[in-house]
Amino acid sequence: MVLVIVIIGLLYSSPNLYGRDPAIQVSGAKGATADLAILDKVTKVMSDSNIELKSSELDKDQILIRFKDVDSQLKAQDILKDALGDGYISAISMAPATPEWLKSLGGSPMKLGLDLSGGVHFTMEVDMTTALNKSMETMVQDFRSDLRGEKIRYKTIRRVAGQDKVQVVMRTAELKDTAERFLKDRYRSYIFSNDRSNDLAFVVGLSDLKVKEIRDYAIKQNETIIRNRVNQIGVAEPNVQRQGAERIIVQLPGIQDTARAKEILGATATLEFRLVDANSDVRDAAAGRVPPGSEIIMHRQGYPVLLKKRIILGGTHITGAQSGLDEYQRPQVNIQLDSKGGSKMSAFTKTAQGKSMATVFIEYKPSGKKDKNGKALPPIKVEEVINVATIQSRLGRSFRITGIDNPAEAHNLSLLLRAGALVAPIQIVEERTVGPSLGKENIESGMTAVVLGFAFVLAFMLMYYKAFGMVANLALGVNLVLIFAVMSLIPGAALTLPGIAGIVLTVGMAVDANVLIFERIREELAEGRSPQQAIHEGYNSAFSTIMDANITTLIAAIILFAVGTGPIAGFAVTLAIGILTSMFTAIVGTRAVVNMVWGGKRLDSLSI
To answer: Quick one: which of 21, 487, 565, 569 could link to 66 by a disulfide (CB 3.0–4.6 Å)?
Structure first.
């Protein structure tokens, strides 16, 4: 068993010996895609510039070019920026050089954190004010739809100015009681109260629990959507996690050019479908006489469109989006809705045939300003009408939108909608870039610390415990191999600089168990027991002490991982893995070697 585990450990830790190649990753920007033609162009540009390539390949609309040294990589980066223009992003990265046969067995090197591989770090802040505003708007729309569905006639339903409350005004006292009972039964987490200013009205507010739920939902959904968008960028080892009540940390190891990352991560694109107000004159509205319940939004071609404020359907119901061309070879995006969205669209268009419906594109752009406390001000909401179409028939869960300028824009819009519309806008409040040269220095410094720590421990154990010290040193070497193997196999684990500190600490702690065992063997020999009895009692007696000591340390590591972020979590991961592997090598591994060398023999003394 020990031999099999050691062989597996050697196999899956070996990819780390092959290192990483300096590389450049080429991907399309603003809807463009990298294809074989771009690959040929890149190869020709490199050849004309006398830059020798190690290899080049096209995979999933991205080109990966490997170089023999960093100098060639940096030189090629400048040349590619000029040759490819703004349509493509060329990002510096370090690509694993694992052989294909090892890849086929599932082998891959340890993922490196930002401080070791270089890359970009974003701190993103979620606009909670907008999240609450959107929830209030949804509440108003839901109340109207529910009361209409129950055929309960209301006078007005609107948000109370400056408050997180909705006022529902009914036509009679009887209808008020009926509506209040119905909504109370349907929305149990809301707070209902009488409106002192109007006997025919009641007010609905959000409980503290509901507000917390909305805020948590905004963070969790945005975190999930950002993770989906990171996958669209093609980063191999991203780190996306929540920080505090309103912020999300995004780390993209290996990426140096932040343009593509910011373009996708910061985009807050979504769609709304609204009815065109055909009963009012748009010229009067443009002159300032906007009818109640309507508003003016500019068409992207520059003219005003008068729309109803009521939202037929929002982007949160969009589950899929694919770009393509219609029968006239014009760009279009095919939209798929979830079941609730499909029901809403079907119910609305059933009685709205012949009316005009507008598709409104909404984007939140950073204001670039901060308040007196240094907190970023809310982003600026930008709305424009993409197209206006007449509803010809009843629509369901699938339909299409047109009026898009070009195929690249259609592709980019479909990508953002497919990744998900952010529940609330986000702003990048902090951005850091770590260069690959600094990461290389960190790796070299960290490995030097590991080697020195390992060497001093080896020397001490060999001098103090002689032959048994050699057994402990062998177990310590196997322990390091197993740590690297486990770190390479765990998908979400990444080695960071604090993680290397955890390995150095593990090197020192791993021999603790052997020290306890060997000292107990010495005590048994001093009391006159035979060498075989001393070995047996040494391992048996020390086992409970070793378990207690390691379990308490493991509990501390688990707590650090659970509550810590970034460097602390990286340290906790390597520490926990090191504890588990050291218990195996120090107890089971050394016992196997001791049994093999000294077991079943008549011994007068032990080299301990």
So the answer is: 21
